[in-house]
Amino acid sequence: MSLLHEIQTAVIQDGANLSSALLKLRLLAARLGSNPLEEWVKHESEGYPPDSEVPPYRVVPVSYRGTFTGTFGSRINNAQIPGYIVEEFAGKGWTRYEIRDGIAAINDLVRSTTLLEIDASNLILLFQGKVYKDYACNEVLGVISRPAMTELQYAVRSRTLFCAFLGRVLLLHIAAPREDLTAPPMGTGDLMAAFDRLGRARTVSPSARRIRRWQAFVMAGPRNGVPAKPS
To answer: Tens of pLDDT along 54-69?
Structure first.
């Protein structure tokens, strides 16, 4: 089984081992000479350093709940704290959390049955008398929704699959002699540029029509050594 088939098979299976698929994708990136893709795979596998920018799909919303006490023993437990209050007194950075863990850690978080909490203790002093008038803030809990982590996992999974698919197109296009090759939907330069854009982990939204053309080009396979012409 080829490296590309191994990546595709690993990704589409239920309970796919993304860590293994990413390692194979890193090898593919090295073969194609795509430094941006190799760097993306490295960060997704090992985690993003504190000084690096994370891709948009790794920024997830955070919700907050708190415990407040007032006079005469009054108490409000597990009260939802509106996002606009958090942003007003703490900044927008507290309502959008950057997930920098590697994909293996993310897989563990998705499988976990416990709440996905972040350290929000610094907000306790900021919320004194701000959320409820004359009420002291005793505890703040920040929670990341599990569906958000599942969506992150899916984003990495879909990009890995698309990279493998696009890589196969590139290898077919590069390997065939130019005079014998029926032109694919994109030129070699455009394909490599698209491959590198994936490596930079920006949003990639190819049209359904273009994906069908790429798929027809790749899945039809070589005919007498010449890849089929895309429709």
So the answer is: 888 899 999 999 999 9
